[in-house]
Amino acid sequence: MIPSVNCIRMSGLVDYKTMLAKQRAVQQAVASGDTPSTLFLLEHIPTITLGRNALRDHVLCDSKKLTQEKVDIITTDRGGDVSYHGPGQLVAYPVFNLHQWQPSVDWYLRTLEETVIQILGRYGLKGDRIPKYTGVWVEGAKVAAIGIAIKHWVSWHGFALNINPNMEHWRLIVPCGIKNKPITSLAQLLPAVPPMQEVITHCIAAFEETFACTITETTLDEPKES
Fold first, then answer.
1. How many Å apart are CA 214 and CA 96, to the nearest integer?
2. Which of 31, 50, 59, 133 has a CB 3.0–4.6 Å from the CB of 54, allowing a cystine?
3. pLDDT (mean) for 91-111
4. What's the confidence (pLDDT) of residue 226?
């Protein structure tokens, strides 16, 4: 049986804490069978996140600088180190019941990477994996970060693909705890910046192919919290 996924395109810039609470609620509903596997696609307000393995000294600035840059900093429950989310970055949060596919962390991570690689391929870009590092790279520069959480074989968190974000904000951190590795974006790799909604459409098609599923879309407005 082909798995069915509910995809929610969230409009506007989404507050990270609000989205984290929403993911947790949906994760519980998917685990209990009350909700189908769900894919959230969105952009966040500028936020630095600290994963379960994060080192605080990988944040390279103080709270005053973060306030000046209008960047939030939040401790979260995904795997990995320090990461950044912000406008111009496509964030995908698959809340998937992996029993519909394979209850395997490694398979899931590699399939998320393959999803990003397929998105890049639609723009003529070759996405690569680097041994020891989770994520997707183009010509040695990281274009997408991946950090996940799984409980009862239901996932949350996911990947962040850089379309046209504020690249200066990566100077505030050691991205994913990896020193001396550049960060890139589609804006830097392509002659013209692709529209976010176009990338989202390619993203949905890539998920359908890599996860061999049928996706039904809805849109949810999510205003920025004050």
1. 13
2. 50
3. 97
4. 39
Q: CB-based contacts of 139: which residues, under 8 Å, 6+ apart?
A: 184
Between 47 and 177, the higher pLDDT residue: 47
What is d(CA 64, CA 88) in angstroms, rounded to the nearest whole number? 24
Q: Which pTM does this prediction carry?
A: 0.93
Which of 64, 62, 69 minimizes the C-alpha distance to 46?
Answer: 69
User: Rounded distance, CA 136 to CA 132, Å?
Assistant: 12
Rounded Cα–Cα distance for residues 173 and 191 (Å): 28
Domain boundaries, the chain: 4-221
| Burial degree of 176 (CB within 10 A; 0-12, 13-18, 19+) | buried
Let me know how long the chain is. 226
Q: Which sequence positions are flagged as catalytic?
A: 176
CATH 3.30.930.10 for the 4-221 domain, yes or no: yes
Mean pLDDT, residues 93-98: 98
Chain centroid to Cα 165, Å, comes to 13
220 versus 64: the higher-pLDDT residue is 64
Alpha-helical (H) ranges within the chain are: 16-32, 63-69, 105-121, 186-189, 196-210
Amino acid at 186: L
